[in-house]
Amino acid sequence: MEVPNKVKMFIWRLVHNSLAVRRNLLRRGMKVDTLCPMCQRLDEDPGHLFFKCKGVKECWRLNLEEYRIILAACHCGKDMMQTIWSLPSQIQLQIIVLLWRWWSARNKANAGDKRPTGPKVCSLVTFYVCEFEKGRKSDNIFQQVKQQRWEPPPEDVYKINTDGAFRAVTNQGGWGFVVRNRVGDFLEGGCGNLRRVASSFQVEAIAVLHSVVRVSQLGISRIILETDASDLVRGLTSTDLDQSVDGSLLKQIRDFIDSSFDQCVIRHCPRNCNKVADCLAMYGASEVSSGSAVFMSQVPSFVAKLVLGDQVGFVV
């Protein structure tokens, strides 16, 4: 669960019946008064403290009473946890935080402090649920930003990024690709102009074909091939699209890859990770003479900043 480790530790102890409730202390040989410090009515064990105590019922009744009844009927901590995991994630979080904050309130009362009221405990539950959700959203945003950076390939593997540009009005397009190593060095790039193409999918596929043919000529045998066209990845990693208009082109690419490379991983990448190839494809569509191709072993000036930006985005 996406909660702080201190909350996870509390839940682990609750599930394994190792919290220092008074019945557990008595079982371990300590001479203690076993009455619940929160209600002073019945012996304190986990079942009573968290689900049956008069004080905790006041907290559950505010918006979680139906779940308290279900959890109170569980035979042990592990059954309780399995039941919680079966609930919607938002309810899971509220229950976990309620249990945790009630334990904190119990510890204060056990130390002689005044027992907080039910509404006070529920107010803290609402606060911490919001804080944990805020932290989770921040983590998700960080992960998304992290994932939307170009990532280098492993040692002795080269990464090819490809892209296509398509103009539906004229049925013309362009393709581009770039080959880089584990430190992000621009090893080879290419772009070209396409006079007649039927679709953006076809342009993307032709970009892949030009890239793998060129890379095989360089003697590279282990590659990662990335494109931001998810349908193309599906067509190159399965036979799902073999009966489509571009099925024969997909088969040609797969056959060439199988015969030319010792290792090839084909995967989808976000557009933010494919900026260099996208820029090369746009250049091919607009600047390269009709029907021709250009290959370059030095970084072209118009993509130099993008290449550098990808290098800055990761730590070797």
What's the quick description here?
The protein is an alpha/beta fold.
What report would you give on this structure?
The protein has 316 residues and is α/β, with parallel strands linked by helices. It folds into two domains: 143 residues, no CATH class; 155 residues, Nucleotidyltransferase, domain 5, CATH 3.30.420.10. Helices cover 51% and strands 14% of the residues. Strands 5-4-1-2-3-6 form a six-stranded mixed sheet, with helices on both faces. The longest helix is centred in the middle third of the chain and has 30 residues. The mean pLDDT is 91.
CATH top-level class of the largest domain: Alpha Beta
Helices and strands: which structural class? alpha/beta
CATH topology of the largest domain: Nucleotidyltransferase, domain 5
C-alpha Rg (nearest Å):
31 Å
Q: What is the N-to-C succession of helices and strands?
A: HHHHHHHHEEEHEHHEHEH
List the uncertain runs.
none
Structure summary, number of beta strands:
6
Distance between the termini: 31 Å
Question: How many helices in DSSP terms?
Answer: 13
Task: State the helicity in percent bands.
Answer: 40-55%
Percent of sequence in beta strands:
5-15%
Shape, principal axes of CA atoms: elongated
- In the CATH hierarchy, what is the superfamily of the largest domain? Ribonuclease H-like superfamily/Ribonuclease H
Strand order of the largest sheet: 5-4-1-2-3-6
Instruction: Report the sheet with the most strands, covering strand number, pairing sense and barrel closure.
Output: 6 strands, mixed
**CATH architecture field of the largest domain:** 2-Layer Sandwich
Round the mean pLDDT to the nearest integer and report it.
91
Number of domains: 2
